[in-house]
Write a structure and sequence with these properties.
The protein is mainly β. It has one domain. The chain has a four-stranded antiparallel sheet with strand order 1-16-15-14. It is globular, with a radius of gyration of 17 Å. The protein starts with a helix and ends with a strand.
């Protein structure tokens, strides 16, 4: 959120310093989230696997595949796992969400309803979406400190002057990456 506000401020008041397009990241899938590990390395996080991409030499390294999980990064690699169960009533809990640190230490675990999958994995919260496409598309934030689950509004289709419309933005020290509405990962150099 703060990154988005800084970028908006940057583009409104520094029109002559509009980020310069460099290239499109070659990915076979669309990442759910983009995390900056360093000024040149990003974690592209997908359901069941992730990769670390070096923006300088344009190489990637796969992180080991994990079934029913997503990786995140916040000072260290994080892993959010989910398990779904069949239920007979809406009073039952259909999903278990677990958060692990880079040493495989369990940091948080919670059973909940509705049936969801993690899309953002952080130390203080996990963002979740409905697991099945036939359900109404809802987004939730699970607070790690108190276990509270809140429905949040998804922010898709944003626009900043000088840049194409995007569904996700990730701002680093020297670059920014936009996930456009066409599902392209566009890399821009910041001045």
């Amino acid at each position: 959120m703060l990154e988005n506000l800084l970028l908006l401020f940057f583009t409104i008041f520094q029109k002559e310093n509009i980020p310069k397009f460099e290239y499109i990241l070659p990915t076979s899938k669309v990442p759910l989230n983009i995390y900056w590990i360093s000024h040149d390395n990003v974690l592209l996080s997908y359901t069941s696997h992730s990769e670390i991409y070096n923006l300088e030499n344009r190489t990637k390294n796969m992180i080991e595949d994990c079934k029913n999980c997503i990786y995140g990064y916040e000072g260290e690699l994080l892993r959010c796992e989910y398990v779904h169960r069949g239920i007979k009533s809406m009073d039952e809990l259909s999903t278990t969400i677990s958060l692990y640190d880079s040493k495989d230490t369990l940091l948080f675990k919670r059973d909940l309803f509705p049936t969801v999958i993690p899309i953002v994995c952080k130390k203080k919260y996990i963002v979740l979406q409905n697991a099945y496409s036939f359900l109404e598309r809802k987004t939730y934030q699970l607070n790690i400190e108190n276990g509270e689950l809140l429905e949040i509004q998804s922010s898709k289709g944003k626009k900043i002057d000088g840049l194409p419309e995007y569904t996700n933005i990730s701002v680093g020290e020297k670059r920014l990456i936009l996930l456009t509405e066409e599902n392209l990962l566009r890399v821009y150099k910041l001045y």
